[in-house]
# Entry
Amino acid sequence: MGDRRSFHSVCRWTFHAGKGGFVPPDAIPEWGAGELDTPGCVEMVSREIAPRLPDHIGLGMELHYDYEVDEENAAAVADALAGSGIHLALITPGAHRHFAYGGVASLDAGERKAAEEYGLRTVDLAYGPLKKCWHPEAVQAPSFVLWNGSYGYDLASPGIAEMYRNLKESVAGLCRYEAEKGGELYVAIEPKPNEGHPAMLLPTVASTILFWKKLGEEYGVDLGRKGVNKEFGHSEMVGLDHVYDTVEEVDNGMLVHMHVNSQGYNDGIILGGPGKFDIDHGARINGMNVAIAGLMRRAGFSRWKGHDMQVRPYDNREQALDRVVRSILSWEACELAEREMDSESLLEHLAKRETAAAEDLVRETVLGAYRHFDRMYRG
# Structure
């Protein structure tokens, strides 16, 4: 691999016993409540996933405050991360578990205040006991991600504009607070069109970029380390183009963090796609991901690529862990194959309208990615 390095992060929330509801809640009983705490999860990733990855890959973990990491277990989590050589890649306030009426955008003043304080406590934890497990390179500092899961509504009314105003004021305030702590985190918003409400504020990448621009213009927020946590599956589930999403993010300098998962419809093997619920398959090998890998490389993106994925409800423990390995190696394979693509010939074909020849070139690149995956997976 030469001097190439690649940073991937594993999500704590991937490792649970089962979803419940329409699928078994106890498919993997070893991962049930209380049987695998967050320090134990870190140790499991270090012991059973890290050794299966190429040496050039650096690993991080992604955590929710306050049900995966909080003031009580933060020191133990930090010790586990530091002791395993795994870094804090992302921390996010799990506000959707507590605030069902808009969170920091809420028209209920009491909920809004509580949600704002919740976010500030998350910042405090990142700069407090978790600071010792940040990556030593500033460019790999953790992402502080705001998921819009609580910024939602189900009633069409002019009150939506007031919610949007509240959201701007609250996020601007959080950014000021984080800047006073040091301004070292990369603050990102993760857009999603629905869940946990029928309609959401900041549903798309474009709306999120516009939101940041407004915060810069209206509230003086420094946009230097602000941007989007792009999640491929969130764009896919409503039929949007996550390749063009990447173009917009890069063009605006707002590609901060990535969740390289998939809804599954785009490789002809697993099912999912527009109109489906959030399936959260791992990364897949396909032409779209090869294209995104190329856009990232040309933009100089070298930060964390997170694997926000759910194992399948019928997996046992070993197969569930294997899916995480496969997701990481699938993305690595796309990156490696993209570097081998004859991009000059591709552009020449497109300029001459030789689209079939361009398709052949991309198809060969995808086949190359599968070969890279097989080589890395088989060791």
Remarks:
- The first strand starts at residue 6 and ends at 11.
- Strands lie at 6-11, 57-65, 87-93, 143-147, 152-153, 186-190, 199-200, 226-231, 255-259, 305-307.
